[in-house]
Amino acid sequence: MTSTFRTLTVPLDGQQFAGGLPSFLVRDDVLCWTRREAGLAGFGEIARFTATGPERFLEADIWWRHLVLEAEITDSVELPGTGPVAFGSFAFSKTSAHESRLIVPEIVVGVRDGQVWVTQSTFDDGPLTEAGALAALDRWLGSSSPSGGTTTAAADSAGDGTSGAVPGRAGGAVVRPLPLAAGATLHTGSLSEEDWMAAVEAGVAEIRTGALEKLVLARDVVATVPSGVNAAQVLRELAGRYRECWTYGVDGLVGATPEMLIQVEGRTAQARVLAGTLDRRDAHGEDGLPMDYATRVLAGSEKQRHEHEIAIQSLTSQLAPFSEAMNAHDEPFILELPNVWHLASDVKAELTEVEGHVPTCLALINALHPTAAVCGTPTQVAGALIRKLEHLDRGPYAGPVGWLDAAGNGEWGIALRGAVIESRDTVRLYAGCGIVDGSQPEAELAETWAKFRPMLESLGISN
Q: Choosing from 213, 237, 259, 444, which is the catalytic residue?
């Protein structure tokens, strides 16, 4: 055996995969990143890196660059996502015990612009051939993991390990009655609804002192599904329902995020920033077209526009030192999703060389995370208040999730509208809200339920 990292990428016949990337979501342990039938799916694991703490992004960056520096890469397709690829998810907080990770699969299937390919990676010294890569893909697709289970290493992402209960609080109490799948139960997590609304009130009070401008508070609920959690089915449901989002699956972390932290292709970086949310159910009974209602309520709201402007300024100010040119929408647009509307803005930047080279995805993430959209502003003040008020280790929730290749390309979303599969039959769901002066606790609680909806639906639980 040799320590040389080698990869082979060959094209596939796209006509054989009419369903696009989601047609490969057949295993509970699949690694995936997909939007509008394009994306990447990974199978198996030949290398893994883990880290915790404030240097987790830079440590992962060093590990990946070292791994691919002397790799033997044979790539006849040469698109973003071909050649060596690692999937990753990172803890939201620098203080979290949750392990951030990069995972290098044995097999990666990619779909982009009508082209389909497969990459095989190995440290073995045997020959890499097209026939061997196709046989390995068939082997993975033909040996799907047992239905209703998960073979991921997600157990360490269950927050503080307290099964959601906080001493002296109402964690674990059954919440509002919902139509549940096959005897499923739904419980509050670290805080009861009443305690979480009290946390929102406390956050607003801090904002009114002038200590900070915005705070993002998250909460969790725990679903127990006795029949077992079918991760592949969850991912297929999300990919089908939320085509405008990026559906992700990394080591038991699953979801469909509408927010792109950073996408890098060559020297071009792009981001999609969201802040300002409206539940689509609120439009029922309103006169006129639903989008007109969304535009009036979101774009016409001083509170929502203020929250959005904070998020945009947070991203652009952090991205500016890495950019020689940047542009963003003068006016936010309304992003329409099946469950909610958002105020959204796209940002595009041309990257400049920093210390002689173009910054990598993970170097950019190190500078950008956490944005005001998931933390608040000022960051240090908001982060400390989150730790005080949430009574929750977010784990990978609201952290970066995505992939990168050896050429420096990558796509990293923010792990929103998602959940962590903690065991065969237990899933912890997360949702958060941006809190500003004028936020109302009851309205913010209702917003979390709207944001839980994608995962609840994909689990067969409807609210």
A: 259
